[in-house]
Amino acid sequence: MTIISKFGIGVLIAVATAATAQQTVWGQCGGIGWTGPSTCVSGSYCAPGNPYYSQCLPGSGPATSTVTTTSRTTTTTASITTSVSTTTTPTSTGKVQFAGVNIAGFDFGMVTSGTQDLSQIVDESVDGVTQMKHFVNDDTFNIFRLPTGWQYLVNNALGGQLDATKFGQYDKLVQGCLSTGAHCIVDIHNYARWNGAIIGQGGPTDAQFVDLWTQLATKYKANSRIVFGVMNEPHDLNITTWAATVQKVVTAIRNAGATSQMILLPGTDYTSAANFVENGSGAALAAVVNPDGSTHNLIFDVHKYLDSDNSGTHSECVTNNVDAFSSLATWLRSVGRQALLSETGGGNVQSCATYMCQQLDFLNANSDVYLGWTSWSAGGFQASWNYILTEVPNGNTDQYLVQQCFVPKWKS
Ligand SMILES: *[C@@H]1O[C@H](CO)[C@@H](O)[C@H](O)[C@H]1NC(C)=O
Ligand SMILES: CC(=O)N[C@H]1CO[C@H](CO)[C@@H](O)[C@@H]1O
Questions:
Q1: Can you tell me the distance from the alpha carbon of 104 to that of 380, in angstroms, rounded to the nearest whole number?
Q2: Does domain 98-411 have CATH number 3.30.2000.10?
Q3: Contacting residues for 199 by C-beta, under 8 A, at least 6 apart
Q4: Residue 283: nearest ligand to its CA?
Q5: Where is the CBM1 domain positioned along the sequence (predicted)?
Q6: Rounded-to-integer distance, Cα 235 and Cα 229, Å
Q7: Given ligand 2 and candidates 240, 269, 304, 310, which is best to mutate, with the most ligand atoms within 8 Å of its CB?
Q8: Ligand 1, residues 240, 246, 248, 281: which to mutate, most atoms within 8 A of Cβ?
Q9: What is the C-alpha to C-alpha distance for residues 339 and 129, in angstroms, rounded to an integer?
Q10: What is the predicted pLDDT for the residue at 7?
């Protein structure tokens, strides 16, 4: 009897919702297969994000005529339907929103135990900015990931204040990135650790890690193009406990005044895109919310290389990763969430050009769930090191893989 009355109430609510309800701000309001509300509450408008997902955003929307919007939507829908019914291979019907490069250097000396030898830092506050200007001006890239060690920012003082000199140098890189007009990911590159011990799991306390992010969010809260990359590549930890740590960081960033910027949520297994669902990262991180209970701009952070062991340490590529990104896309759609591929890359060789272009085609075709990518890596790699994944431009000339795939699959 109780069960029957619950069903009764459920049906009534469902009917009422479909007939009259307007979607709340940040909620979905359209897209292929969407049967929920298509209008938004007062003070917001339905923004057509991509064929699979429209969202209620605050404000009155861009001054676009209704006629133009409608005809564009219709065309897109028709072409998507055709491609799905004629082939199982994704075709480039869409395009990701963000494309860019990692600018490494302030993370140098960091190893997977979360220990950083500060003598190995390459200060990218000048050269890194020059590189970003090239990538924006010549390649139209619009996002950069700026890795740094936690130790560097606080000059090895766990729990301390941002170091005026060292953080000051890193901030020049961040400001240089912002000045290009791009989005800029502040990436703490510590593998969820400090000197061998796991944050919140025997190592630094959650409070110490939260304090770092409170300081960074306070510093950068005014800029909407800052993206908070909570942590690079956690591994070998308790994912449930880690997700609780991430929740505290998200709350702290929002409460510091960075109320709406993107925050990247990293899973375990080195944020592997292939293992994200299977290893419990997806379920644990999907429960992380903003202080208002929403998941607006909480984006899953994933990495995937194309070499034999997904490590990005071999020059040859052996996979286009379509299997991995395909299953992850299905899960992302099932929970209505999105991911950013913040590390991917390969050697400057033919096999990588073939597979990387296929991977980028797939991401473009699934741009409803994949926001974009930052490839690994430009930054402080000296020419004499012959680093196999280098994307450091030679003046204004891009490396082979950038020329073959990263630029054409973004610009086309
Ligand atoms: C992880 O931590 C949670 C909560 O603290 C605990 O219940 C669970 O047993 C732990 N999992 C493992 C595999 O140790
Ligand atoms: C920590 C954890 O559970 N890792 C697992 C994630 O999923 C991959 C793929 O199934 C496993 O190999 C890992 O052991």
A1: 6
A2: no
A3: 190, 192, 193, 205, 206, 208, 209, 231, 245
A4: 2
A5: 21-57
A6: 16
A7: 269
A8: 240
A9: 26
A10: 27
For residues 368 and 31, the answer to whether their CB atoms sit within 8 Å is yes
* C-alpha 310 – ligand 2 centre gap (Å): 14
Are residues 202 and 236 in contact, defined by beta-carbon separation less than 8 angstroms? no
> Does the beta carbon of 39 lie inside 6 Å of ligand 2?
no
pLDDT tens digit sequence for 102-123? 999 999 999 999 999 999 999 9
Active site residue 278: no
Query: What's the pLDDT at 47?
Result: 66
Do the Cβ atoms of 245 and 200 come closer than 8 Å?
Answer: yes
pLDDT for 93 equals 60
Instruction: Decide whether any atom of ligand 2 lies within 6 Å of the 236 Cβ.
Output: no
Tokens 């431009």 -> residue: 393
Q: From the alpha carbon of 236, which atom of ligand 2 is closest?
A: 1
Ligand 2 atom having least distance to the Cα of 237: 1
- Secondary structure class of 253 (helix, strand, coil): helix
The residue to which tokens 């619009």 are assigned: 142
- Can you read off the two tokens belonging to residue 165? 């000199």
Query: Would residue 343 show up in a list of annotated catalytic residues for this protein?
Result: yes
Nearest to 358 by CA among 408, 289, 294: 408
Q: Which residues of the chain have pLDDT under 50?
A: 1-20, 49-51, 63-92
Give all strands of the β-sheet with 44-50 in edge-to-edge order: 28-30, 53-58, 44-50
- For residue 53, the model assigns a pLDDT of 57
* Tokens describing residue 89: 């291979």
pTM of the predicted model, to two decimals? 0.80
Ligand 2 contact, 278 CB (< 6 A): yes
pLDDT of residue 82: 28
Q: Whose CA is nearest to atom 1 of ligand 1?
A: 238
**268: Cβ below 6 Å to ligand 2?**
yes
Q: How far is CA 5 from CA 8, 9, 11, 18, in A?
A: 5, 6, 10, 20
pLDDT of amino acid 42:
82
